[in-house]
Amino acid sequence: MSRLRTVAGLLGHFLHRQRFFLAPLLLVLLAAAVLLVLTGGLSYVAPFVYAIF
Question: What pTM was estimated for this model as a whole?
Fold first, then answer.
């Protein structure tokens, strides 16, 4: 529950300060995090994650 509060606070900060130029960075990091969570950090996914960055 505290993680969701942290993410909500971070998003609220960016929206309040109107830092919309950081949106692409946040979207890429969110996509990478979702990929890692869904796959459970499987070793055969690692080359694809390395290719993104």
Answer: 0.50
